[in-house]
Amino acid sequence: MKITMAHGSGGESTSRLIKDVFAKHFHNEILEKLEDSAVVKGAGKLAVTTDSFVVTPIVFPGGDIGRLAVCGTVNDLLMSGARPQYITCGCILEEGLDIDVLDRIIASFAETCREAGVTVVTGDTKVIENKGGEPGLIINTSGVGFIDENLAVPGPFNLEDGDKIIISGNLGDHHAAILGKRMGIESNIVSDAAPLKEMVFALLDAGIKVHAMRDVTRGGLGTVLNEFSDSSKCTIELEEQSLPVSDSVRNFCGMLGLDPLYMGNEGKMVLSVAADDADRAVSIIRSAKYGENACIIGQVHKQDTSSDDNSVVLRTKIGGKRIVGLMYGEGLPRIC
What we know:
The chain is an alpha+beta fold and 336 residues long. It has two domains: 5-146, CATH 3.30.1330.10; 164-323, Phosphoribosyl-aminoimidazole Synthetase, Chain A, domain 2 (Alpha-Beta Complex). 29% of the residues lie in helices and 24% in strands. The protein has helices spanning 12-25, 65-78, 99-116, 173-183, 197-205, 220-232, 247-256, 278-287; strands spanning 46-53, 59-60, 63-64, 83-94, 119-128, 137-146, 164-167, 210-215, 234-239, 269-273, 295-302, 312-315, 321-323. The mean pLDDT is 91.
């Protein structure tokens, strides 16, 4: 069965779609009330995020748009030191979308929520006309997490001189998986889309002095570290030989002329950690799910805060230095 405009009418077809697909996977006592807004338990200090997810294809090696939406939302909350609790799910469906495909994606969304420890508390569904091409969907989310009142919230403005820069794993897997699928390039590359709850909780519970955290998504590591450098008025020096990139992704990049520093990921984070905690932080991340390839990739050099000479510098394998600037324009084929 396919999605039709009747599924967006608010009538019987809409009710049947919600019951047969969404309610089946998102079953909980909050949603059972079918109110226009959810009343939930709260806390004094909240982290709130919202995001919209558009990707082609909607099912790709290693994941789908449902898993992607949960991971993207949850990881944004985690990067502020919050413990994610609630998520919303708004779906804009194109006429002609196969309901079996939708069911698979919503099941994936629900399964990833369980892995991430978040509850779907409200949602919405709309149907729009298909303007041509393969019918797809857009997912919009909002997420809410609770922050410990005593936590020094990490942020890009908190980097300190001597901090070590840590990446939680290989770069470029998600971007290469999406682009390869779209271009019909056969490979063993799969998306890294994953909720980073376990490693973040372990770092915070161990009292690691984390000054900044950011998930490395669209724009890649180079863009994130430029934001760190600009906010904290510092230079970040990276070691090229320390950057973790799988052979498959490295070969993929070589074939298409891509740079892993600017490729999107959906299950990796970069941290700035006090030097005396860096080795312990790497060990903790490597012991957590999805963090087995974590490593130190660079260091922070704090300058006079009045200086505008802040940059990200890559020390190359042959001993030279390269400025890693902000990605300009499109930069490379977009994946979402």
